[in-house]
Amino acid sequence: MQFIKAHPARIYAVAVAALALVAHYVPSLPSALVLGLVAAVLGTGEAVQRTENAKTAGAGEDEHDEHQDDEPATA
Fold first, then answer.
1. What is the DSSP letter of 29?
2. 25 partner at 20 to 30 Å CA-CA among 14, 49, 57, 59?
């Protein structure tokens, strides 16, 4: 579970690539199934994007707090 929380974008990319390969090499899949999976993938991508944005925003706040005292005072 910790790995999933740490690397959601990587897991998402692998899952989407695998889904694309399956859709390409198994042409007998019903189009309704493929379209449903595409919709689910798009929704999951939005969730992954929000998770990554939150991680980036949190890292930026931590960095700003650490280096706040390093800035020279202006006169």
1. S
2. 49
